[in-house]
Design brief:
Elements lengths: L15 H32 L16 H29 L7 E8 L2 E6 L4 E3 L1 E5 L3 E8 L4 E5 L4 E5 L5 E6 L4 E7 L12 E6 L1 H9 L7 H11 L3 H4 L18 E3 L5 E3 L2 H9 L22 H13 L42
Parallel strand pairs: 1-5, 4-10
Antiparallel strand pairs: 1-2, 2-3, 5-8, 6-7, 6-9, 9-10, 11-12
Bound molecules: dinuclear copper ion.
């Protein structure tokens, strides 16, 4: 399309035409009314001009019919824009289940990416064409924004939480990656490239870029060295702390009766600020790990917890875990009060 109409950037994802179509619609409606109003303005200026210096116009009393018309028509047009835009929005911001996951950490002023298979990249992202890719993103410092114009999608990358972005590239090639949120002096230099490759080419790339361990394996190592295993078990089977195996994506009951879904944000918070949400039946004895783990390491621990058997993938095997069902996995077997020696959360490292 950009061949004959250089109004839009290159189109290379399944979102591209959807977003472009909406923009053409918005532009079309805008253009139509600009022309209509200009034409009517000029016509009225001539038709109702003052012809003699002493002319007094006829009084006008108004028209309910006309007012209803110019209220209802713009309302309907505006709602089509809203409805159409909302549909695209919800599709873009609800990542599909079967996507390839890539972890992204933004910092002043670079993009650090790691594939689930371990490959690390800086300011570059290699992905296969025709596959759904999900980015799980966070920032080490300030707000950044991951933006690939050719894919017509972007999302803020925010310190202290995980945001996601997904896309399916439709055309092999090299595409611009921008930071689309002003983040300091070298914001404009926080750029990179997304390489969309044929699947076989991508497999070759993956094979030629081993080296670092997978995020899950690195997370397992951290899990041991940080001492998580002493309370949560070597394989997340639980003990003094809640069970972690199978936790991800499941409903978890908290002290006080509230039930939440164990997502990335919850696990991250529980590592850095363990006292914020206490699992029902446990006492807040876990120390904070604030300042001891980097964002990269948090992502790795998260990947490890997700990889523990009994995770979301194994959910079907045990029958459907309906939301609100008793989260047996997180109910402690032993008395959690066995260790009053632990310091209350949050006051020490
Ligand atoms: Cu990062 Cu702008």
């Amino acid at each position: 399309m950009q061949g004959w109409l250089p109004l839009v950037p290159e189109s290379a994802s399944t979102f591209s035409w959807q977003v472009d179509a909406l923009y053409f619609y918005l532009s079309g409606v805008t253009l139509f009314f600009v022309l209509l109003i200009s034409a009517v303005l000029i016509f009225f200026t001539i038709r109702y001009r003052r012809r003699t210096p002493y002319e007094i116009p006829r009084p006008i009393a108004g028209s309910h019919k006309l007012e209803t018309l110019w209220t209802v028509i713009p309302f309907v047009i505006a709602m089509t824009m809203f409805g159409w835009g909302a549909r695209i929005y919800f599709e873009q911001y609800k990542p599909p289940q079967n996507a390839i996951e890539v972890y992204v950490v933004g910092k002043q002023w670079m993009w650090k990416l790691q594939h689930a298979t371990g490959q690390r990249e800086i300011n570059e992202l290699h992905v296969p064409v025709g596959r759904k890719i999900k980015l799980i993103m966070t920032s080490e410092d300030v707000v950044h924004d991951f933006f690939v114009p050719a894919f017509r999608t972007k999302a803020d990358v925010v310190p202290g939480r995980y945001t996601t972005l997904w896309f399916e590239a439709t055309k092999p090639g090299k595409y611009h990656l921008f930071c689309a949120e002003y983040c300091g002096m070298n914001h404009s230099g926080m750029i990179g490239s997304v390489y969309v490759m044929e699947p076989r080419e991508f497999d070759n790339w993956l094979a030629g870029n081993t080296g670092s361990s997978t995020p899950a394996a690195a997370g397992q190592q951290l899990y041991q060295t940080l001492g998580c295993a002493s309370c949560h078990g070597a394989n997340g089977e639980g003990g003094r702390g809640p069970t972690l195996a199978g936790l991800f994506g499941r409903p978890t009951q908290l002290e006080g009766g509230q039930t939440i879904t164990a997502d990335e944000a919850y696990i991250r918070e529980s590592i850095l600020n363990p006292g914020a949400k206490i699992v029902a039946g446990f006492t807040p004895i876990m120390p904070t790990f604030q300042g001891q783990v980097t964002e990269d390491q948090l992502v790795q621990i998260l990947a490890f917890i997700k990889s523990l058997p009994g995770g979301t993938r194994a959910q079907g095997a045990q029958g459907t875990a309906s939301p609100g069902a008793s989260p047996a996995a997180s109910t402690p077997a032993a008395s959690p009060a066995s260790s009053p020696a632990g310091s209350p959360t949050g006051n020490v490292r």
